[in-house]
Amino acid sequence: MKSLAILCALFVVSDCVKMPSTFQKCTRNKSDFNQCLLKAVENAVHQLNHPMMAVGLISLEPLEVSSINVSPGTGAAQFTQIYKNVKIYGFSKAKFSKFDFDFDKKTITFECSVSNIRVEAEYDFKGRIMVIPFNGKGSAVITLDDVNFVFTFNLDEYDKSGEKYYKIKKSTLVAGPQLIHFQLDNLFGEDEALGKHLNDVFNENWKALWDDVESSYEEVFNQLITNDFDRFLEKVPVSEIFD
């Protein structure tokens, strides 16, 4: 019985993960708490050019995703978008302009921007862009410049092993790039001229394409970031995150 008690005690201790020593902690009852959080979160994100699996954080440089599916829109982007073996570069260089934590409402709202996001993937598109039917499959490089993000997280608080933890109940994202550039190989097989023309159509009409399936793109980015943040909250108790 004594051995069992010791094992249980060790389990409780090991279940509580400490924040990395390189992450800044902020004192919640200070007047500059949100300003402190803004700097602390930006600093932590910049460190994620490598994984920190002990606290549930994967590398953001690149952020690797096995597949992404985007359904057709009803306007310019009436084609299915399937991406596989996706690598997304740029999130670790995000600049934060606002970070608000409301403990009473259990909400987090923050705004950040990324000057350049680069997406490398294998793509499979089928449908029509504008009025042009096409069916393409190959390598894709898509860059998004000066992307602004506004995230909102609604949290639940719960007890585990004598400690309080947060988990994400709901999250929303509003995103907006200033420019998108597509480089899609093999859009028309060996017909390079038609492929170049269709790439030009994508790039000349990037805003209409984004607007048509904006909510789908936002949901993809939202889910990727939310999953990473939720893994961190699942491992690190509130007492370790704030003083």
Topology at a glance:
Blueprint: H1 2-15, H2 33-46, E1 63-70, E2 77-89, E3 95-102, E4 107-129, E5 132-160, E6 163-176, E7 179-184, H3 192-204, H4 206-212, H5 214-235, H6 238-241
Antiparallel strand pairs: 1-2, 2-4, 3-4, 4-5, 5-6, 5-7
Family: Belongs to the TO family.
InterPro entries: Haemolymph_juvenile_hormone-bd, To_sf
Pfam families: JHBP (PF06585)
Q: Number of DSSP strands?
A: 7
Radius of gyration computed on alpha carbons = 21 Å
Count helical runs: 6
Structural class: alpha+beta
- The fraction of residues assigned to DSSP E strands is 35-45%
| Largest β sheet strand count, sense and barrel closure | 7 strands, antiparallel
* Dominant shape: elongated
How confident is the prediction overall: mean pLDDT? 91
- Percent of residues in helices comes to 25-40%
List the main descriptive attributes of the protein structure presented here.
alpha+beta; elongated; seven-stranded antiparallel β-sheet; about 30% helix; about 40% strand; about 240 residues
Could you please describe the fold and organization of this structure?
Helices cover 30% and strands 42% of the residues. It contains six helices and seven strands; from the N terminus they run H-H-E-E-E-E-E-E-E-H-H-H-H. It has helices spanning 2-15, 33-46, 192-204, 206-212, 214-235, 238-241; strands spanning 63-70, 77-89, 95-102, 107-129, 132-160, 163-176, 179-184.
